[in-house]
């Protein structure tokens, strides 16, 4: 099994390389078409034309685009995404500071979406043929029709402003010090034994993660219900009934193992979309992740940051896809023989 998984990983990594190259090329070329002069933006407003031209030469902007791209790609391969035009600091450092926060938000949101989706799918299937199924089905469609930013605003008004149960800005309340070991706040607070900081960080994550999780749970719910309906047509389900197994044992012990496989594939795709969907939620909740960094960079036309964040999103989505394919291979023995 491990050899098969290793071959799959190697194959997927090889396929990912040209995808990354294509994405990086598109990012670089499209941003260079914009009517923006990075050299002029990196200098004071009173800079002379001569100073701007000298800066353009220094930044390599006078070179042909293919040569500029080759230089930038070589720097990226060595972990250097350049320097932010507005912030005057290393873009690699900025990505390292904001990426862990976005990953924590996306992982917690996906856990919520998976829990709600699987529980809802099982409930929909269990209630099949009843009036309750129709009510729950309409409810899932209503959840599906509301985007994550509306959920974010609704949760702020309800639990942040009205009931004042949970904080809804930033990652920590005033008076808490953020530990810095791995860059992941939840992990670092546990490593250092700062459990009060950990709980405060979790409280700040609940609303944005729930806003994302609720909006991405209905597709999981509906696909799982459809998969269970298909699986229940198979012969082994009827044979399990003839052996006297209870419906609950048949559902959890037999049908769910096969029905979860297409649901797992959807969850991998959903996680990729969810990771990109953190952008609006981070803005709404003033959450210091890559989404906020990207919006600020777009507002200031900070090309090095835009390029780095776009490429980072692509890498994360590809990694998620590879991990999901590996998990699918582990859970589905039939694929190991191919």
Automatic annotation (TrEMBL):
CDD domains named in the record: TM_PBP2 (cd06261)
Q: Where in the cell is it found?
A: Cell membrane
Homology family: Belongs to the binding-protein-dependent transport system permease family.
- Note the topology in the membrane: Multi-pass membrane protein
Q: InterPro entries annotated for this entry?
A: BPD_transp_1_N (IPR045621), MetI-like (IPR000515), MetI-like_sf (IPR035906)
Source species, domain of life: Bacteria
Lineage at the top is: Bacteria, Pseudomonadati, Pseudomonadota, Alphaproteobacteria, Hyphomicrobiales
Which organism was this protein described from?
Answer: Ollibium composti
Q: Does the keyword Membrane apply?
A: yes
* Residue span, ABC transmembrane type-1 domain: 99-324
Q: Tell me yes or no: is Cell membrane among this UniProt entry's keywords.
A: yes
Q: What name does UniProt use for this protein? A: ABC transporter permease
Residue ranges spanning the membrane: these are: 12-34, 105-127, 139-163, 196-216, 259-285, 305-331
Ordered alphabetically, the record's keywords are: Cell membrane, Membrane, Transmembrane, Transmembrane helix, Transport
